[in-house]
Structure formats: C-alpha cells, structure tokens
Design brief:
30 strands, binds zinc ion, about 40% helix, eight-stranded mixed beta sheet, alpha+beta, five-stranded mixed beta sheet, 32 helices
Amino acid sequence: MCISVWAFFLLLQTPTWLILGPLSQNTCCGASRSFKPRPVAAKFPLMGPRDLTSGVTPSGRRMSEQWAAAVTGGRPRVVGGERPASVHKRLVAAFALSVVTLVAVAAVAVALAVRFQECGGGGDEEEEAGGPPGTDRPSGGRGERVSAAEEEEPWRRSRLPDAVRPRHYDLNVAVHMDNFTFSGDVGIDMECLKATRFIVLHADRLEVSSVAVTAKRPGGGAIRVQRHFAFPANQMLVLVLHRELRASRTYRLDVTFEAAIEDELLGFFRSSYGLGGQRRYLAVTQFSPTHARKAFPCFDEPAFKATFSLSLRHHARYTSLSNMPALEDAAGEDGWITRRFARTPPMSTYYLAWAVCDFASRETSTEGGVTIRLLARPDAIASGAGDYALHITKRLLAFYQDFFKVAYALPKLDLLAVPKHPYAAMENWGLSVFVEQKILLDAQVSSASYQMELTMVVVHEICHQWFGDLVTPLWWEDVWLKEGFAHYFEYVGTDFLFPKWNMEKQRFLTDVLHEVMLLDGLSSSHPISQEVRDAADIDRVFDWIAYKKGAALIRMLANVMGQRLFRKGLNDYLLSHMYGNAARDDLWKKLSEAMRSEGRDIDVGAVMDRWTLQMGYPVVTVSKNPAGQLATRYISVSQEHFLYGQDGGRGNSSFQWQVPLTVAVGNGSRVSSETLIWIRNKTESHEMSEMDDKTWLLGNINQTGYFRVNYDLQNWKLLIEQLHADPQVISVANRAGLIDDAFNLARAGYLPQGVPLQLMAYLPEEAAFLPWHAASRVLYQLDKLLDRTDDYNLFSDYVLKQVATRYRQMGWPGNAVNAEGGVLQAAYQTEELQRELIMLACSFGNKQCHRQAVAYISDWISSNKNRIPPNIRDVVYCTGVSLMDEDVWEFIWMKFHSSNAVSEKKILLEALTCSDNAFLLNRLLNLSLTSELVAEQDAIDVIIHVGRNPRGRNLAWRFFRDKWDVLDARYGEALFMNSKLITGVTEFLNTEKELDELKEFIRSSGEGAGPAMPRALEIVKGNVRWHRLHRRHLYQWLRKGPAPVRRSPPGDGSLAA
Ligand SMILES: [Zn+2]
C-alpha cells in the first residue's frame, strides 16, 4: 500500500525544526516528497516585484467572490463531512468499553445479543456452556494473555480463535448502483482444527439475514445453530452451535448479508467522476488492513489465507473486475449480468478486491502471456494518460521476475485509476488500485518530479505482487516486511527503468534515510516491529518508520551481504513462503543461510533484532587514537543512542547495536578503499592503515548504514578543508551525508552550531545535485526556525551567498516537454539541480529569480499561454502569488478551477497558499472545508501549506484549533491523515507561547488523537529548546561569517589554522 500525498504521508511526518521545507509530496514512496521542496511559502519581501503589475482590479475581486459563492453554495459533499461518526471513534469507544470494565462489556454484549436474531431454541442460558476453544494464536503476535472470560467467550479477544480456519470462499455479490447497496451470500469451507461449539469470524456493518452450518462429508447434514450474534466491539460475527464441531473434519458455513456501498473510502465504497456534464458512479473495494469484513463475513486476519471464487451481479451498463480474469458472463432478462471470476490462489482477505464501473481500458501483454490492463475514466484513456503506467508496468513485471527468480503468479494484472482513494495506491493481487494522481500522466504538463513520483508508486505496487500478495507478513507487527521492501524497491526498480536517475545510490539518501532519521531520533519514536493487539494498533503500524526505516534497514543489509547473496536469500525466502505467510525470523533465516552457503557465518537475526526491536539508531563517533605527534594506526569507535531533545546525547544508555561501520581514510587528493568493521560494544579500538595528522577519517561510506557518524572537531576540520579544496575526493553520497549528519548533530547538541554552516560554505564548489538537495533540506529546516527572528537577514544572506554562483551558472530551463523519460532521463541531474537552485534562490529572496518568476506569470496572464517550464511551475506560481497582487491569486484560482490535469491542479492549489494577504488565506482555509472544488484529501494540504507560509502560520494554527471537531470527524478515522495534519500545523511552532497553546489544546481536545499529539509536543519543545540554547550561537557565527578555510592544493593536506 502506498501511503501518500494526501493520504498518509506525513504520518510520522517530520518535525520542523527537524525538517521542513522540502516536505511536500508523496508517497508511498518517499520519492517525491522532497522532490518538490516547498518553495517556501511567502518568503518574499513586500516590495519590489509587486510593483510590476497593476493594482487590484474590480473584475478580479468579483471573479473570486463568484467562485466563493458558487462553491460555498451548498451541494452536499460527495464524501465525508456528514458521516455521523468515524469508524475509528466508534472502534476506540468500543475498545475502551471492553477494556475498562468487563462488567460494562458484558452489559453491552447482553444488550446487543438481545437485539440480534436468535436461531434455534432459546439459548441465552447456553452462553457459558460448551468447551472453550484453545488459546494459542494461529501464529504471529506475541504471547497474548487470555482472561477467563475470554476463554469462555472467544469473541471477547481481539484476535480470532484458531479452532477453525477457512480454506475456500464462494462469494456472490449483487451490486445495486442505483441505490448504493449490495447483497450477497458467502459459503466458506472450513477446517476444524480443535473441537469447538463456536464459529467466530469478522463482520462489520453487515446486516446478516441467515446463517447455516453443514458438515462436509457424506451424510453430514446440517448442524443446528443455537444462535448467532454480532459482537461489534471486535467487529465479529459469532455462531453458537448446538454441538461441537470436531477436529480434522471440514464444514461449510453459509451466510447471507446486505449492506450499503459506503460513502467513505473503506470496505466496498462508492466514488464518482464527471463526464460531459454528467456525474457517473463507480464502486470499488479497499480492504487493507481490516475492511474486508465490511464487504462480507470472513476470517479477516492475514494468516487465514484461503482461495476465493467470486461472482458479481450488476447492471449491464457497468463492467466489473476482480483479482482474477472473468470466466463467463451470464446475461439475465432484467438487463443485469452475472460475471463469474476464476478461483484465486490462496491469499489473505485484505488483498481480495473488486470494482464495478463504466471505465474504458487499454491493454498490453508480457512475453510470458500476462495480460496487463489499465482502466480509467473514458476521457483519460482516450487522451493516452494511462499509457505511461501501462508501459512501465510491463517492463517492471519482467524486471521483478528476473530479480526475484519467481514468476508473477496470476494470469493478468489490472491497474485501476480511481478518482478517490484513501491511499496513493493499493496492491490488491492482480487488481492494483491507484488514485488518478498516481497513475495518470499528461506528459504535456507534468513535471519531472510528478513523473518520478508516479513512477515510484507504480514500482512500489508491482513489487508488492511478490512482497505482500504472494508472501504476506504473518501479522501486522511486521508490516514493514512488505512495506519496507516495496519502498526499497521503488529505488531499485526505478533505477532499472531509468538508470541515470541513480535513485538507490543517491536519491534514497535524502528522501528516505535523512527523512526517517529525523523521526526516529525522537524519543516518541518506536521500534519498527511493534506489538499490535487491536484495530487502532493496526492502523498505527502503517507509518513512516515501517516504510522508510524498513527500506533503510533492508538497504543496509543488502550492502553488507552483497547484491548476489542478498538476491539469493530473497529468492529462497519467496520460494519457501509463496502462497503463505512469513515473519521477520523467516527472512533472517533465509538470509543467514545464503551467507553461510559462501562461508560467511553471520547470524542475520541476531544482528537485525537490535535494529528492529529497539527504537532509534546510534550515533557512532570515530576518532584517531590520540598519539601525540606520532603516526597512529588505531582508531577508537564508540556508539550511543542518538536523540534530538537531550542535548549532547543522553539517549537510552542500555541501547546497543551491532553496527556494520565502513571506514576510509583520506588525505588531500585520495581516499583509501573502505574497511568494514563490526561495532558490537560501546567503545572499541580498531587498527587501520597508518595515519598522520593530515589524514581524515570518513565513516559510513556512501551512507549505506542506518546511523549517524560523528568525529572529533579536528577531523571535522580536515573534512571541511577537503570539501573546500577538492570535493570530488569524497563521494557524492558522502558529501550529502556529511551535510545531513553535521546539521543534525548540531541540532541535537552534539556539535557546535558553526560546524554545519562552515561545512556548507563549500557549496559554491558543488556541482552535483544530491549534496545540494541535502543542503536545501537542512536549510529549509533552519529557515522555519528562524524566519520570525529579528536577525533573519543574516541567515538568508548566508544562504543566498552559497547559492548565487551556481544559480547564475545554471540559469533557467528551456521549455522542453519531457516525453516518457527520454529527455528527462538524459538531463535529470541537471534539471533537478537547476530546479533546486531556483527554488532556493527564489525562496530566500534573490532579486533576479523574483523578476524571472514575475515575468513568466505576467506573460501567462497577458498571452493566456502558459510558457512556464513544467519542472519549475510550482516555484514560479508560488513566487508569483507571493509577490504579485490579488489579481494573480484570482487568476491562479480560476486556473485551478478550470484545469483538468491532476498534477497541475495540485500545484495551482498549493500556490494559492503562498499569498501574504491574510484575507485571501483565510478565505482559502474556509473554502478548503466547504468547497466541492477542493477534494477532501487536498484540504489537509491547504491547511498545512498555509501554515508553512510565515504569514499564514497563526491563521492555520488558529483555524486548526477552531475547526478541530470538524477535522477530527472528517479525518480522525484515518490516523495517518490526522497525523499528517497535526504534524503539519504544529511543526512550525517554536515560541514558549505557542508551546503553551499546544499544551492547552492537547489538554482540552487532543488527547484522543493518537501518537501524533505527543510527537507534536516533543517537536515543539525541541524547537523552543533550540531557540533557548542554540540560536544565539548560530547568529554569532553568522555575524562573524565563515572562518577562512585554506584551499589546499591536492596532495597537500596541511591544516588550516
Ligand atoms: Zn505498500
């Protein structure tokens, strides 16, 4: 599953003081996120270019008032706001009930039981009767304590009992698109593993009209159901039988049910789109992680894999699709058809999917005969917007089959582009569903970032066909087993498609590694494998720690093992567990075996448990053994838990890791090859080649490891001199890594504030994209901390000084359209660097940059032709809105309204948040919640982006608090959206007053909002502490300016004074 853009993505999002700026975007995939660093809302001075355009025109104002009126005028929203209560709240309330007191729960259960239909003779006195089933988990999960009540009544436990398990489902669903309901019947073939009188499975929001159980053997016959009832607290359907089912026998459970096709994006839900002035509807499923139970009664846990035979009945004006190809269509006289699909292989319920729609499609097929189709709105198919995704999917299937040495398991793969979806995409087996923005590409207007983002989402989902669909994590605690892999392969797979993008070796660092180390350096972080007991926990595990830390750990492991052995291990793992489930230990075992097959005896499990069961990561400090004037061969290395808030590193002293540290030494013009050292103790000493006082040490070569490296000040000085004298001696990845490490070490109090600034003063010498990208990320972070301080100009001048030379040299792009990556691929590094520099220059106030942006916007308005190169449109739009008058805002708003290209719409909307006009920002905030023009998922982005604008910060923060009830009702159910929003509006707060406001808000309203609130509090406290402890030093350094660094000629490693 791709958590993305709106959906999920800020889940654990980043701290501001920790991050900021480049955090827009995407993904499942981290890819893009930093891809389009926010050009910085409104950073522009009020004077200057504003004069270039005329004042407010009456027509402009009228235009916007009309929009506002049209928009707020009141048709009900298609999705959302009116939901009576969010699922989550209901769940949470239910859980609270059940946990708080058994008595209360019992009362609820009795009350509920009474309401439910009773089958067979009257049985409430039977409730305590019958042998309770066993208490062992089917697998996965840590030992769960089971109370006596739970033993007697297994539906009181949050997990299904393991007395019976499903083998096959015959599922028939009739879909009524006219009134948005569906009805169905399901026949489940079950195997009884332990004698039991209870059948407990999942069902949620379903109206069950009949249940029946029969023994599946000759002469078996019906088994009387004493009664059945729903147990909503655990979303379960319970059957109490007159007699026990017997172990080793098979039975059939038949249930008929009906329900609404929901208006929210879970279970079996509806969605719509406009075509030719008409509203057209579709219905589609989203079952992950726990919503299959909203569409049919089922054993809705990942380890209960079974086969499925589905048939769908619907009106013939729709088509339908599911995981498997259709076998036959039977037309009825009523204008309806029944479509029967082929039987699936064994799979988890949450990967089952179906859709009923009137979409058009394009298709292709692989050499192995797998049919790939892309289905989307007819107009999108006609314009060719789906062709790019179709084309890369075909290549990717071949890539993964070759990489994993395991064939794609199904005869077909459909990619379905839907207008609304809770995630960027969902990897249902054979039927992956994407939100349109993540799969439709209009090459004429799409930026390189957009294309890359979309590409990575597709790469991610296709990877899941193996890691996820074919081999499924046993339980949600190890969801990173699939999400970490899919995220890692976004980079590997994209490199296959576009080798010059150099994703895994470069982009991975800024978008994944640097990003997640920000989060995982907080004391509110958590281990990547975390205990999961109830439904709220399940939603919580889909966070950036699972995705990004998972990917970073996998990458570290792949580098330690070497690609060949890593692939061998993965191949074994997939073959051993295909069509089944696996836990992390299963993976470690296969990887250890692969290592052992070549005589490398590493217990991968023992190493990785430290990384997966402990939160956080170490900072490794490397220094030469003090040897006076003498040359030395020894280095000392120590490790400690890295934490931001502790200043000087007082993390958890009991934490220790097995760290695969690679080290090289360098001097002037050359660097040694790397040495791998395993660090297992707090402090160790290791022998290297001979070093003198001009030799520097460099750790974590190419930043393949998931940790930070610190050095003594003398070594930092030597590294900085090296960067100034000849940066090329140090690899691109390490140059980016040094910037990120130095900045964050200073942020956390491990290094003086001047070290990263002195280091970044080499940037005028830097010609590669990645170090610039790393630098801009940390500079935007600092910017958000400083942008309301008195001496801010000292900082912006420093940044402009670093940027000026390279910006002038790179200039602005021409207007070449990139088609299918051709142009893009050739020029990617150049284009991205150019974009990065323009963004920095315009954000921090480079006058020439401002003039250029304003000229582009003026040209667009006067000619009505948009000649702005797609790759920098977001920067130009935002700069224009920020600097120019209200007419420009109206113009962009009009374009937002009229644009059909999804990528363009998104950046137009974001540009509107760049205004420095409080009236306009307020109006936009209100429109975001009331206007049909702003999609529900985009409203969050509007609020967050207004908050990023220094002039909008207070507005967004106040708006958030005022509208909390509305926002919580709308997004509270999707923890990730809530989390993104909470982080987004709070991460900029950095004064004592704001901290108090946040505390007050949490106390009065926000206590139920999940982990985002404590994290927000930690981040804001960190911001305030940084101001108290470090701001003065930073400005002192800026006032003095960088110390002169001697630019030593190559070969001369002499020290600066
Ligand atoms: Zn995923």
